[in-house]
Amino acid sequence: MLDFNQLKGSSKEKGRSVIGIDGLSRSGKTTFAEKVKAQLDEEEIASTIIHLDHHIVERHKRYQTGLNPWMEYYHLQWEVKQLRDELFRKLTTASSLTLPFYYSSKDECRDEIINLPTDGVVIVEGVFLQRNAWRQYLDYVFYIECPRKTRFSRESEHTKADLGKFQQRYWKAEEYYMDTIQPLSKADQVLFT
């Protein structure tokens, strides 16, 4: 599945490589990230997984802002520039990161520390991962391609009941990403599920 020696050769900094796992919602990114980590564990290679969904902003910053719902999701769900500066730019040099973690139960963000391996791999997984502000900081990117029908079937029944939200918010943002960024062509490897 993963040739760590190839990744080491492409690393920007000796000792640490950064793997990106991109794909649309419910495509299987988290599951694949765990499989990559398990393989690295077997090879006794230190690794850390960073989930972009842990770093979204509070609801008032991403809902009912006056923008179209799909624009809120694509442009406001994350503090794109802040994550570029405080996460992506530091992935190969910092020993730790201090990032805001989102807690949905209280709709709040709290700063927490993520420790990074000195010699090993950082795995970053999340939707829209190859946007222009972030892509250059990733040494190797997997894109998980999964049909919309399959992805939608993985949602809870309660979530699927609000089809309009998917049509106006999520799917339009996904289409924008696919059309403007063309992530399949920019990924180092595309996996079909």
SSE diagram, text form:
Elements: H1 4-10, E1 16-23, H2 29-42, E2 46-51, H3 69-76, H4 80-86, E3 96-103, E4 108-115, E5 120-125, E6 140-145, H5 148-153, H6 157-160, H7 163-180, H8 183-186, E7 189-192
Parallel strand pairs: 1-5, 1-6, 2-5, 6-7
Antiparallel strand pairs: 3-4
- The CATH architecture is 3-Layer(aba) Sandwich
Give the name of the CATH superfamily. Answer: P-loop containing nucleotide triphosphate hydrolases
> How many separate domains make up the residues?
1
The chain-level structural class is alpha/beta
Give the uncertain stretches in residue-range form.
9-13
Count of runs of 4 or more consecutive helical residues: 8
Helix content: 25-40%
Number of strands: 7
Beta-strand content: 15-25%
CATH class: Alpha Beta
Q: SSE order, as H and E?
A: HEHEHHEEEEHHHHE
Terminus-to-terminus distance: 15 Å
Shape: globular
Largest sheet: 5 strands, parallel
InterPro entries: P-loop_NTPase, PRK/URK
Keywords: Kinase, Transferase
Organism: Pontibacillus salipaludis
Pfam family, one: PRK
What's this model, at a glance?
The chain has 193 residues and is α/β, with parallel strands linked by helices. 35% of the residues lie in helices and 24% in strands. It has eight helices and seven strands.
What does it look like?
- The chain is α/β, with parallel strands linked by helices.
- It has a single domain, classed as 3-Layer(aba) Sandwich (Rossmann fold).
- 35% of the residues lie in helices and 24% in strands.
- It has 8 helices and 7 strands.
- It has a 5-stranded parallel beta sheet with strand order 2-5-1-6-7.
- Helix 3 packs across helix 7.
- The longest helix is centred in the C-terminal third of the chain and has 18 residues.
- It is globular, with a radius of gyration of 17 Å.
- The two termini are 15 Å apart.
- About 3% of the residues have low confidence.
- Pfam families: PRK.
- Keywords: Kinase, Transferase.
- InterPro entries: P-loop_NTPase, PRK/URK.
